[in-house]
Fold this protein.
Amino acid sequence: MKLKFTKMQGLGNDFVVLDGIQQDVALTPELARRIADRHFGVGCDQILLVERPSGPGADFRYRIWNSDGGEVEQCGNGARCFVRFVRDKGLTAKDEIRVETASGLIAPRLEANGEVTVNMGAPVFEPGRIPFESGSAAPVQPLEVGGATLQITAVSMGNPHAVQVVADVDAAPVAAQGPAIERHPRFPRRVNAGYMQVVDRGRIRLRVWERGAGETLACGTGACAAVAAGIRRGLLDSKVVVDTRGGRLTIRWEGGDNEPVWMTGPAVTVFEGELDIDRR
């Protein structure tokens, strides 16, 4: 069976996008792992599936699988690629769409300059909703990892993040420490580990160890979580440029409990193809 796909990237965070409206797609964890494999498949950080919405109030449904085969709630860079994809494929003529995700509705918008802005919803700091096992919603909390006590901010952007401030993001122990944070028992659904260097009140540098994918060149929800954490801690202003290893995002958050985080950045189509999913 042939499966048509589009390879896309947002700041080097790369995706295989599947149109589940114009073709039948029965995606399983095993198939997701095969597609994401960089040696035997197409290769990607995540797989994005475009589907019809389950009910009124949305234009599409958006599902995400990490390269380890696990389905997850949200992906910010993927959301930007999603709106670029549905416009380029003629699935909608709208510049702004409403999209169902496992964590609720998002509203990505295609800008005149080709970049995409996404309303990512309000950040969640309440531990039980992240989820994070803690009796406190304090903006900075200790986390014991490998005999060291880290100071993190736990926040959800539809998926869980543990953000810590580091002096030099290039020297941060992302590969050594990230897996232990990801699977820390205080995060029952695992967690994305963010390492944020504050350059000034309007700019940060960021690396993220992503749950189920490892370190990626950029993480959209990670950028939103880091900025929200920095604003919550009084370190950042409401508009912040985020420099990742894959490029630059602009994040805005006014800081209110119900105020959404806005993310703006690029979305690029790399190539298209067909995958023979019956061939091993």
Observations:
- The chain is about 15% helix and 40% strand.
